[in-house]
Write a structure and sequence with these properties.
- The radius of gyration is 14 Å and the shape is globular.
- The longest helix is centred in the N-terminal third of the chain and has 7 residues.
- A seven-stranded mixed sheet has the order 6-7-8-9-4-3-10.
- It is mainly β.
């Protein structure tokens, strides 16, 4: 199933012709700091199925515990977080909140749950992983 989305101001748009069911609520410190949110929900898509269809996102790189650098892409005009990309991976993650229809995907698990903010109470029955999802690409 294809998904489309973009930033708040509409300057940057993307499309992915397919995605996996690996939709994760991420509680890591990097996602919190880079987005200003208490957690970030990501949809995993094959890199080959993803394309920018309007505008050009800005980006920055940082190190992670994946042993590879991470590139985060966002709109330079409005600041919307758009993607999370690990070097040397055939997959990338799209910010679920940037989808035109966020309801088209359903969260499947929590990752970096050990880093969760203590006051955030979660009342779902999704699996929780202290670090990344064991089967993640």
């Amino acid at each position: 199933m294809a998904i489309e989305g973009g930033c708040f101001c509409g300057a940057v748009r993307y499309r992915a012709d397919e995605h996996t069911d690996s939709v994760a609520h991420c509680h890591c410190q990097h996602c919190r700091a880079s987005t200003g949110a208490t957690l970030m929900t990501w949809v995993e898509v094959p890199r080959a199925a993803f394309e920018w269809i309007a505008g050009e996102p800005a980006s920055y790189r940082h190190e992670s515990d994946w042993k590879t650098a991470i590139t985060r892409r966002f709109c330079a005009d409005c600041g919307t977080s758009l993607t999370y990309e690990r070097d040397a991976s055939d997959w990338l993650d799209v910010a679920a909140g940037s989808l035109d229809d966020p309801g088209a995907v359903a969260p499947a698990h929590h990752v970096y749950h050990a880093s969760r903010i203590g006051w955030l109470e979660i009342d779902d029955q999704l699996p929780r992983h202290d670090r990344g999802y064991p089967g993640s690409q």
